[in-house]
Design a protein that fits this description.
The protein is α/β, with parallel strands linked by helices. About 35% of the residues lie in helices and about 20% in strands. The protein has 13 helices and 14 strands. The strands form 2 sheets. The chain has an 8-stranded mixed β-sheet, with helices on both faces. The longest helix is centred in the C-terminal third of the chain and has 19 residues. It is globular and about 65 Å long. It starts with 12 loop residues before the first strand and ends with a helix. About 40% of the residues are buried.
Length: about 400
């Protein structure tokens, strides 16, 4: 249903800008962060989403989606899927002015159209609304290692122009808060509010588990930052029959080739399959077919796949570079320093050695950990502070 401008609502109005949104899925966690945000906030605010009309690296627009018009995504949430020919300064400024939002929410650090343009518009006085900027993990040292020169130039430009003084930063954990302070100084405005999690259903029960047998699922881009090769190096040192499913885009072709060469040298007791990308709505059923989730990542802003695996009763084996910490204490999994390969091997071996009773206990612990996180009562209040 096409909508008229401006928005007519008794609620305060937030305009969110993001490169990708549903039905997209190839950009991974950032899409889910944005979708969860608008659904959680629509009871208090009216939400508008300005995004692109196609998924990450896709040549064609989403099937069946109306482009270049404001339509209703859900009750209380409007959306405009922008076509490539309209991705311009003039068009984006016109949409911001037509919506007349009370707040503008940016969900990237380096997006040309949905971060850089709006920030420059704010700096030059074309727009006057408060701007909230969520770095989405892009200030982490592990993320800055890639395309380092361009990112450094942009961050220096922000500081030089004083743009960092005109925005409110949204940090999703204490590490990101410190990253903001590191790059922009202690005097900037930063609000700490964790990502909204998805819904957690009733405990789904545990998969069938036999000793010395372990099925593992890895979900993430096949890119050095996700450390798939680290996991592949460890598996031959685990005693047992292992099955590994790798879900994610082959973003770095050379790195993917190296990972596949490692797999080709495996003994028959280790089975590996690369599925490529899978739409989000199909992931839960695939996760249910495995015993554990593994991701020795170099850094995650949140880790939606981690949360979703926990919520489905799957213990996780992850690095300590995510917000998910102290998992072993609640028998939800293991969060381990990347320098401690022996601890990763021990965790995988422990999971492989579980009998049914032991696995049942850790499966329930994983689900309970996710349920406790989702039940936090004060998360919305933290977000309300951002938009007031």
């Amino acid at each position: 249903m096409a909508l008229n401008n401006p928005v007519v609502s008794s609620k305060p109005h937030i305009l969110m800008l993001a490169d990708w949104f549903e039905p997209g899925y190839k950009a991974g966690g950032p899409i889910r962060s944005c979708v969860n945000f608008v659904r959680q906030m629509k009871d208090k605010y009216h939400l508008s989403v300005l995004t692109t009309d196609r998924d990450l690296d896709a040549e064609a627009p989403y099937e069946g989606v109306t482009t270049d018009k404001w339509i209703e995504f859900e009750h209380g949430i409007d959306i405009l899927y922008c076509s490539p020919q309209n991705l311009s300064w003039k068009y984006i400024l016109r949409q911001i002015k037509s919506r007349q939002p009370d707040f503008i929410y940016l969900n990237s650090m380096y997006s040309r159209y949905f971060t850089i343009y709006p920030l420059l518009m704010r700096r030059l006085g074309y727009i006057s609304q408060p701007v909230v900027l969520s770095p989405r993990g892009m200030l982490r040292e592990s993320a800055l290692r890639f395309r380092k020169t361009k990112k450094k130039i942009f961050l220096n430009l922000l500081r030089f122009c004083g743009i960092h003084k005109l925005v409110r930063f949204h940090a999703t954990d204490a590490t990101e808060q410190q990253d903001v302070y590191l790059h922009f100084g202690k005097n900037v405005s930063v609000t700490l509010a964790p990502n909204f999690a998805g819904a957690v259903g009733p405990y789904p029960g545990a998969a069938v588990k036999k000793e010395k047998q372990l099925s593992i699922i890895f979900i993430g881009r096949i890119h050095p930052i996700k450390n798939l090769d680290y996991l592949l190096e460890l598996l031959p040192q685990v005693d047992g029959h292992l099955v590994l499913t790798i879900v994610g885009s082959e973003e770095d072709k050379d790195y993917t080739s190296r990972c596949k060469n490692m797999v080709a040298a495996y003994p028959p007791r280790i089975e590996v399959r690369f599925t490529g990308e899978i739409p989000n709505h199909q992931l839960p059923e695939l996760i249910r077919q495995h015993h554990i989730f593994a991701l020795p990542t170099s850094g995650e802003n949140f880790g939606h796949a981690i949360f979703e695996s926990l919520a489905l009763g799957k213990p996780v084996v992850i690095s300590d570079q995510t917000p998910w910490r102290n998992l072993a204490a609640s028998k939800a999994g293991w969060d381990i320093a990347l320098a401690s390969k022996s601890e990763f091997i021990n965790a995988l071996q422990q999971a492989c050695d579980f009998n049914q009773q032991q696995y049942d206990e850790w499966s329930y612990g994983a689900w309970q950990h996710a349920a406790n996180f989702a039940a936090q009562p004060d998360v919305k209040q933290l977000y309300y502070k951002l938009f007031q």
